[in-house]
Write a structure and sequence with these properties.
With about 300 residues, the chain is of the alpha/beta class. It contains 9 helices and 16 strands. Helix 1 (about 20-30) crosses helix 7 (about 200-220) and helix 2 (about 55-65) crosses helix 3 (about 75-80). The chain starts with 8 loop residues before the first strand and ends in a 6-residue tail after the last strand.
Amino acid sequence: MKLGKIKKIVLGLPKGSLQEATFELMRKAGFPVEARSRSYFPEVDDPEILARLLRAQEIARYVELGMLDCGITGHDWIVESNAKVVEVAELVYAKQGLRPVRWVLAVPVDSRVRSVKDLRGKRIATEAVGLTKRFLKSRGVKASIEFSWGATEVKAPELVDAVVELTETGSSLRANNLRIVETVLESTTRLVANKKAWGIPWKRRKIEQLAMLLLGALRASSKVLLKMNVRASKLAVVSRILPSLHAPTVSRLADEDWVAVETVVDENVVKNIVQSLKRAGAEGIVELPLSKVIP
């Protein structure tokens, strides 16, 4: 029997600051990625995916043009490039954690600039020129905006009066004696798709599968599975202590006086409830990591 040709989607993955976190998320979702040094053609452990490693700044535009069927990039770069794409899923993760990042307007700590309006006629450096122009226009402020090729934080005050820079924790800004005047845009990572590709049923199904598993891996990253044995007479008390996605799963044991209880909970609450569970009669409490949570 002749085997048919395997259909493939072309997926853009971000090179640079998001690369390591994205590869780890892909692995947890069931799509391990292997990238050789200096190669822009990483291999994904899925015969239906061809991956391309590109700067996050470029991915939305290449998805819009159809050179990529889908890609992972920041909402900020979608806005910056004004790309017309389908935003399939919001993936809340960044270089240093599971949280949004911000583009902020920042000035030297001793600057007289206290508000956006104080920047009229001033010079601003940024990698996100289009984003900054639209922001200033919305505030009725005219200023000189220049593209920065990098190391933007060190340019104020000697070269420019202010910067618009991406920050996750603010530590780099503080280290360079800058203070934040205002947030320009809050951004999260997105899985985006080309509009024509989204209209092709098999491509859409594959992209939706990818989105579902990536979101499942993200949900699992902050949750654990708690398992324990409880006397049947104590079950009601233990159940009231346990937070869960829905209700705990309860299974009868060989000893009819006992039941097995398991539930998915936020990892950060375990330390606050484990002692109460013990006091309520739970025994053999086991905490297990999760790879994916699909609601």
